[in-house]
Structures are given as structure tokens and as C-alpha cells.
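Dear support,

We are seeing what looks like truncated structure output for some complexes. This example has two components. We would appreciate it if you could run it in full and send us the complete C-alpha cell output so we can diff it against ours.
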Amino acid sequence: MKRKALSVLLSAAMTAALLSGCGGSSGAASESAPAASESAPAASEAAPAASEAAPAADAASEAGADAAAQATGGADASGKTFAIVVKSAGNAYNTKEEEGFKEVIEAAGGTVVVKEPEAATVDAQITAIQSLISQGVDSISVAANDENALQATLEEAMAAGIKVNGFDSKTNADSRMTFVNQAGTQEVGQTLLDAVYDLTGGEGQYAILSATSQATNQNAWIDAMKSIAEGDSKYSKLELVEVAYGDDEPQKSTDQTQALLSKYPDLKVICAPTTVGVSAAAKVLQDQGSSVKLTGLGLPSEMAEYIGADDAHSCPYMFLWNPIDLGRLAAYSAIALVNGDITGAVGDTFTAGDMGDYTLTDAGDNGSEIILGPPFKFDPDNIAEWKDVY
Amino acid sequence: MAGKSGRSIKAEQEVSFKKLILSWEGALFILIILLNIFNASISPSYTVTNILREMPKYLAEILMMFPMAYILVLGDIDISVGSIVCLCATMTCFISNAGAPAIVTYIGCLAVGLICGMVNGAVATRFPELPSMIITLGTQIIYRGIAEISLGSGGSVSFNDTKKIMPLSKKIGPVPVVLFVVIIAAVIFTVVLAKCTFGRELYAIGSNKLSAFYAGVEVQKCRFIAYSLLGLMAGACGLFLTAYMYGANTTTGQGFEMEVIAMCVFGGIATTGGKGNLIGAIIAGAIIVLLRIALGQINLNSQLILVIIGAMLIIAVLIPGIQANLKARRKLKQAR
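Here is the complete output from our reference environment:
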């Protein structure tokens, strides 16, 4: 009998530990419990009423929050809760997005809820979003782990009156109101082609080192580069000799770079629009002291030792979007959605504080998107400050 | 009814209120009441409607907990179920997208699960000397591998026509359909384990395989059935998941095996076999799910939630060990 008693004692101790560990408000436990369960049916009834009352509340808060609105360039989020769901925990890039998001929302007087799923899976994101619906947040900004899999959950959120926008990684058009795109295909293509033009001096051979041959974003960027080059006589003296595929594996990317060097002795520039490819190629070129220059899309932390203006460095400059700005734009667009400034329709415009005015454009999937702008340039002047960031 | 050895076997176990409260299941029951009070105090969103809405994903997982309990009672383990879920979900989408009607899609999904379970069972019974952990580790990799190959480079598939799977994610009032399925499964699996011959045989095998064999229990047949049942229920889990995700991808069902095993172990089912029952596992499953929901609602760091659940599990496993230790010491004292 004693051992049974012990088991009860231990489980009681466990509960106590839980209570003290994460609650802090355990004193109110028994009092609020019945109240919470009573309010359950009322909550569902109140839902439509709440959405009706929202415009009225907006009007009321507008007058009082003018000062805050001026400080943040027109965005006002006082009294509202904005949630951000990133891909997974323990991801430095995601942390930067959160940072930008928080900065804008808090400056506008709103409350931020950050959800970092324990793993980069759809299941974990569904759990997180369901929890946010329960909490009755005003908006959810999500970087989806799968384009279609969140549809049922996000539709449920929108039906509950929550504004949903995607950022970083797209959800399908049915599961979002708008999408904040860090890399417009045309913008990336234009930027990379201009970099090649600049580094070759306007004429000569260049090659592209891509990821896999099926990667949709890579192919879209490469196609954009090709079509821009064809459409403008300025680029007529540039010759694209080969698109090589390193499959986003460091070793294969290294091999492909070496193959390019031996096949094309007159090669002037390699453009690698993939973070794995660009760092592998940078190492090859720098180790061999090659005169071939490199540009592309890369992570500052991985590329810092290769970026430099002199011949000892293989990469004069490269690009990537700025995750902090991406988070900030996601926040501004969420505020605009919640305040009713935009509905997510193509052609809507809003002001994103000091980032300027943005227009919602057609994303090509029956939905709208907001393009952050051209990729951010990392050169010898700013690489030192960014290499510790991400 | 004293036997030759002088020990007696009671035909009926005495059931007293005190004993009921002090059993592991009783302790869990008290814990779940305390937990609900705690949850309601920390989270204002902890309402019946919200819980029912957040539950379906977990309920799909719990479908696999019942047959997993059988496997654990046998003294076996199956860590391939997460991959079976992934494969079933993937195949459901392909079958549906090929134009099959809803009913064919459902049966197809369950069939894929059943076949996977039967393969596990066949290998485990053909080579009983191999540890089940290793066999199912192998099939875990194989099943997910097949799913990944079928999914191709995109890594995900969606339904062309979501109407076919809609009935599965429907709600009757605020209650999701999957909850009814879970309740029916819970009743059947619990009764079979506790009251039917098959259940008794599982305990016999788990306690001592050899003596069960000599007592005329068809050991390998029972194991085969248990593995097949688990495969079937993994198929059901996959089916419901696709209904909530409108598709499948390479990470579907990842880590489910461990979550399901954790629920069983926390419910007092020993991985060494022969011990525990489904009532405990069901309450334990409810505790873990409700705790996750409440901690999620107060936006606690997701990894911290995992740490808390992990710690609970360790304590749950430690308690019987400590008890045995104390008992042994007491005996030693008495002997002196």
C-alpha cells in the first residue's frame, strides 16, 4: 500500500512542480476554472459580434493613437495582437525576421506573439496556428513549411475573423490574404544580370551554378536572367556558356565549379544564385587564385572570408534579401490588413513606415503579393557588420 | 484456493475505493483533474470549444496509441508508425488524384497501412530472434523512403479535389468526427485487451514468451496480429491527417512513433512487456494533449514544452523503479 501512496505523492509533487514552474498564478487556479468553462459557449456566440464591433473600435482608437501613428509613419496597431509563425525554432534567419516584425508592431503599440514550431513540419505549424485561433489574435503572419498543407487551418483562422498574410515562404492563394515576397523573380534576375554585366565589364563569358535542375525558384531566376538579357541589347555581348547544377551539395558544387574552370578558359564570371553553390564556388576560386570572379545569392556569415575588392578575394559582392526588412514589411502589411487599409486585392496600396509605399501585385497564382524590393547587396564595406547577423 | 505451493490465487481481484485511487490509473485521473484546473488558470483561451478545435491532430495520433499499447504489452516496440502514416497519407493523395471515389480512397489508405503493418509483423515473426526495434527501424527508413521517392523533388502532394476527404474533417456541432472514431476505437481496444482471450494472451507473451508458448499460446500469430493492427490504425491516422492538411509531404507523421510510445509509457505500460492497461494510457494521452494545448495557448517556447513532457515521462518511468527499490530494502530489513 505504501508504494501506491508514494506514487500518488510523486505525481502530486510533479503537478506542483509544473504549477510553480510555468504558472506563477496558481493561486487563482480554482477560482477561474469554472468561469472559463462557463464562458465556452458564450465565446462562439461572441465571435460574429466581435468582428462587427471592430470598425467601431478602430474609429475610437484612431483619435487617441494619432501620436503613435505619426511616429511610425502612419501605422497604428494599438490594442491589437499580431502573431508571427516562423518555420522552426533554432533558425537564425527566422530570428532576424521575428526581430524586424517585433520592432514595427511594438513601435505601433501592438502586441506580438511569436510562435516557433519545435520542428520545421506542417504538423507543428498547424498546432501553432490552432493555438493562435484559440487566443483570438488579430492577425497571423506565417512562413509556411508547405504551400498547400496549411489551407484548412488558415481558412479556419480567416473564418474566425483573423487576417492572414504569408511571408518568406508562400502558401497557396486560398490560404492567405496576401504574401510578402522577399524576392520578386524579375528583381532577382535583373540584379544578378547587372552584377554579371558589371563584373565582366560588359562583355565576355559567364556561367551559372544552380542548385538542382528541378528547383522552381532557381529556374525562375535563371529564366528571368535569360529573358532580360535577350530583351535588351545592352547585354548582347554577354555569353552564357553553361548552367551547371551542384544539387545544393558542397562537394558536387565544388566539382562543378572546377569543371567549369577547365572547360571554359575564357570564363570571366560565375553567378551562383544558391547559398550552397556560391560558398563552394567561392572556396574553389579563392584557393586556386583564379581570376574568375563570383557573384550570386549567399549567406553573409558563410561568405565573409571570400568577399573583398582585391584579387585575393574571389567574390567582389553578392546579394541576399534582408530578413529584418522582410519581417518589418510583414508587420506593416499585417497592420494594414487589420486596420482595413488593404483587403489583399491586387492594386491595394499602403505605407510601410520609412520603407515607403507598397502596392499589392498579382502573384501569378490568383493571389496577391507584396515584393520587398531588389535583393540587398553585401560588399566589402558592410559584410563585417552582417556576417554575425545571419 | 490454496495451491501446493501454499500461495493462493484469488479468482476476483478485490476492488476497493482506496485501491482504485492509489493505483497508477487513479493517480493519473487525479492528475488530469488538477491539470485541467491548472490549465484553465494559466490560459483564458482554455475553453471546451477551443480544445475541441485544437484536438483533431492529436486525436489522429491517439488512434495509433491503442495498438501500440498491444505491441508494448507484448514486450515489442514499433518505431516505424510515423513513416507508415507518411506513406499512407501520400498514397491517399495519389489514389484520390487518380480519380478514385472517396470510399476507394479511404479503403486504399487503410490497406496501405495494413500491408505495412503486416510486413513488419511478417519479418518480426519470421525472425523472432531479431529485436523488434531494429526491424522497425529498418522499415521506418524504407517506408519513408518509398514515400519520398513517390513524392519526387517537390516533396509534397495535395488533393485535386478536397471534397472527397472533407467528411473526415467535419464537425458535428463543435465535436470533430475523429473524436467519435477515437471513442469507438478506445472502447473496442480496451475491452479486447482487458477482457478477451486475445488480450490475456498478449499479457502472457509479454510476461514470459516461453511459458506462454508451452501453455499453448500461438505466440507468433498474436505478434503478427498486433503489428497488423498497428499498421491499420497508422493508416487511419494518415487518413485523418490528410483531411486536415489537404495533402501530404515528406515530414508528415515525423516523430509520431515517439509521441505515441510516450503516451503509453506515461500511462503505465512497461516497455519490457506484460504490464499496464489501456485506461492508464488513455488518461495519459489526454494529459499530454491537454497540457500541450494549454502551454501552447500561453505561447510557451515550443522546446520548453517538449522538455516538460520529457521530464514528466522520465518521472513516470522512474516511479515504479523507486517503488521496487524501496520494497526490496524493506524486505531486507525484515529479513535481518
